[in-house]
Amino acid sequence: MSTVAFLRAINITNHFVKMEDLRAVLVNQGFENVQTYIQSGNVVFADPTISYAEAETLINRQLEARFGFAVETFLRSASELVALEQACPFEPSEIDPKAALYLTFVRHEPDAEAQARLAKHQNELDTFRITGRHVWWLRHKQVGESKFSGAKLERALKQAGTARNITTIRAMITKYGFTNA
Question: Comparing C-alpha atoms, which of 33, 38, 43 is closest to residue 5?
Fold first, then answer.
């Protein structure tokens, strides 16, 4: 089976990392079959022999030591990604062709207060749904038209997260042959 690490804040602003350097850090820590997908902090590897919580902490520490900036890591199993994609909380009829659908990975399921803070940001351009440790964000129009951002999402939830477009998730599922078995 495979595990995917979604890394926050890789290759944005001043946090540029070569993918071969990123792979090397994980290989040096004993992770196997390490592959990167596009340049935005998506790493696929064989399931770790340690718990996900331990692996996230190890990866966070090693990346910060190597690259000099904090890199939050969110691990999900391949089967979990498939199940998430299949259980999208938005109906196809709700998603306009001009819309963008993002899946944000967070560490803990947002509590009622965090959900209420996020709900205050919902409007005709931005709709949110929360499923466990995942926040779905449907941006109904083009990027420049929405005033909402990932940073605002993190402030509303009071925890770090990292978002991926659902097309990236689907492409990874296909490329790596993930199943929910």
Answer: 43
Cα distances (angstroms) measured from residue 77 to each of 32, 45, 52, 102, 140: 15, 10, 9, 18, 29
Q: Are 1 and 77 in contact, with CB atoms under 8 Å apart? A: yes
Q: How far apart are CA 15 and CA 11, in angstroms?
A: 5
**In whole angstroms, what separates CA 129 from the centre of its chain?**
15
Of residues 114 and 71, the one with the higher pLDDT is 114
Domains, the chain, in order of start with CATH, read 2-78 (3.30.70.1280), 81-176 (no CATH)
Q: How far, in Å, CA of 63 to CA of 103, rounded? A: 23
Q: How far is CA 160 from the centre of its chain?
A: 10
**What's the confidence (pLDDT) of residue 30?**
95
Mean pLDDT of 8-27: 88
CB neighbours of 28 closer than 8 A, spacing ≥ 6?
Answer: 62
Asked if 6 contacts 105 with a C-beta cutoff of 8 angstroms, the reply is yes
Q: For 124-139, write each residue's pLDDT tens digit.
A: 899 999 999 999 999 9
**Cα(110)–Cα(157) distance, integer angstroms:** 6
What's the average model confidence in pLDDT over 75-93? 95
